[in-house]
Amino acid sequence: MRNVLSLLLFFVLLSIEAQQSYPITFTHAGKTVFGTFTTPDGPGPFPTIIINPGSGPNDRDGTFLLSGGNVPCLYPELEGETVKPYKELSDALVDSGYAVLRYDKLEFTYPNTLGTITFHKLWLPVESAIEYVKTRSDVDTSCLTLIGHSEGSSLIPFIALDRTDIKTLISIAGARTPFDSILAYQLVHFAELCNGDTITAQQQASQILDYFYDVRNGNCLLLPPAFGVPACAWKDYFEATDPVAENYNLNNLPSLFIGLGLDINVPPAELIRFQNEVTITDDFWSIPGLNHYMTPNDDPHVSEVLTDTIVYWLRQQCMGTSISDPTSTDDHKYLLSPNPFQNSVTIHFPVAPQQYSVSVFDPMGRKVLYNYMANASHLDSATIDLSNLPAGYYFIQVVADNQVGAVRIIKF
Q1: 124-160 per-position pLDDT tens digit
Q2: Residues near 207 by beta carbon (within 8 Å), at least 6 away in sequence
Q3: CB–CB of 156/52 below 8 Å?
Q4: Gap between the Cα atoms of 136 and 26, Å rounded
Q5: Hey, what's the torsion of the CAs at 161, 40, 362, 343, to 10 degrees?
Q6: 312 pLDDT exceeds 70?
Q7: Is 132 helix (H, G, I), strand (E, B) or coil?
Q8: Are 105 and 64 in contact (CB under 8 A)?
Q9: pLDDT > 70 fraction of the chain, expressed in percent and rounded
Q10: Distance CA 198, CA 222 (A)
Q11: Confidence category of residue 308, pLDDT binned at 50, 70, 90
């Protein structure tokens, strides 16, 4: 397992880019799902990430007011603060060149009108989200990533099974221990931390474990609902998520597991359990000083160490830029001169475009410059000032009238 605190001292994002956000809807199990699709500025197509949220009626931002209950005990320095982990995670990833879809969960949008609850309806909207993003022209469908937070981490490997359109999986604060055992643990642990009624908490924990034992091993049709969910929907849920480590192995996809050092909801030991059972990756990273909401205990904002860790890993799997392979032999090559260069380069178009965009990326795939011309006046060349960049080599991506090409350049 890696402690990324020292590793990321060497990883610095070089730019903060403009974003474009679109309110979107898609249909899942007969219900309209509302969400936000956010992209970097520019035409794309962009590698795309879908955030699969944790348990509970979360909105697309993961909005949670830290107030009441055990909050004064568990998060005294955050009491009264509102965290929005999915919104801030999305913003950081979009700034790094990725498009991100996040959505309101159905139990948030339809708290009283959800209708018949099934495993598919309640827990698998992300399947419909995948189909939605694949219809968009600004999505690079060859590079789709699922991020699962908390409970969402248990679901993404099941969702990816038998699919061929998911390239990478990322687990944040995910549990290897089944849901009912984690819930029972939380009841007792929180009571112990906050001087609560531990005897009552232990009784409630035993009731939860007994009920879900019966769900797994008995006739679910004879059992009452729990937390508003029919027993048979729970049975389907456990059949999908109990073998979570095996599901990650069966997918055999590039997978990143991130544990959070101050997480009291999903203890850091869960990362070790994954490490002991998941054999298809060595990427188990522990980030100290962060709680379950991806923030420090004295700051309501998602940690840059976390987002930089994700981007650092993603760069090795799928460029956040949609750069064409500069060694490919396609029909859309662009001559750049001089190359090597000192201050500026001139792009010579084989055919004068009506519009074009130019993006410059460093060797890690981080976008360091973006320039868009909607009306190029049929110019046959364009000069780009790169005098502010340090010496080294870069990739220039050119999109001219929807034709994409990339060239490696060297600055001395």
Answers
A1: 999 999 999 999 999 999 999 999 999 999 999 999 9
A2: none
A3: yes
A4: 12
A5: 160
A6: yes
A7: helix
A8: no
A9: 88
A10: 31
A11: confident
pLDDT in tens, 238-270: 999 999 999 999 999 999 999 999 999 999 899
Q: Is 77 exposed, middle or buried (0-12, 13-18, 19+ CB in 10 A)?
A: exposed
| Domain 335-411 CATH class label | mainly beta
pLDDT in the model for residue 360: 84
Q: Say which residue the tokens 């968009």 belong to.
A: 136
Cβ proximity of 220 and 238 under 8 Å? no
The answer to whether residue 372 scores a pLDDT higher than 50 is: yes
pLDDT tops 80 at residue 394: no
* Spatial CA neighbour of 334 closest among 398, 253, 401, 286: 398
Q: Beta partners for 38?
A: 21, 100
Residue 2 has pLDDT above 70, yes or no: no
Place of tokens 């190359």: 339
Domain 2-178+242-317, CATH homologous superfamily name and number: Alpha/Beta hydrolase fold, catalytic domain (3.40.50.1820)
Q: Do 263 and 256 form a contact (C-beta atoms < 8 A)?
A: no
Q: Nearest-CA neighbor of 305 among 297, 314, 296?
A: 296
More confident residue, 207 or 355: 207
Residue-level length of the chain: 412
Q: How far apart are CA 361 and CA 396, in angstroms?
A: 6
Largest CA distance in the chain: 78
Q: Which residues pair with 98 in a beta bridge?
A: none
CB atoms inside a 10 Å sphere around CB 240: 20
Residues with Cβ < 8 Å from 199, sequence gap 6 or more?
A: none
How many other C-beta atoms are found inside a 10 Å radius of the C-beta of residue 407?
18
pLDDT band at 364 (very low <50, low <70, confident <90, very high): low
Sequence spans of domains, the chain: 2-178+242-317, 335-411
Residue with tokens 């029919």: 230
Q: Residue 220 carries which DSSP code?
A: G
> Which CA distances in Å does 45 have to 92, 165, 180, 226?
18, 16, 41, 43
Please state, in angstroms and rounded to a whole number, the distance separating the CA atoms of residues 234 and 214.
Answer: 11
Given the structure tokens 């490997």, which residue do they identify? 157
DSSP-assigned letters across all residues of 82-95: EE-HHHHHHHHHHH
Tell me, what's the pLDDT at 319? 54
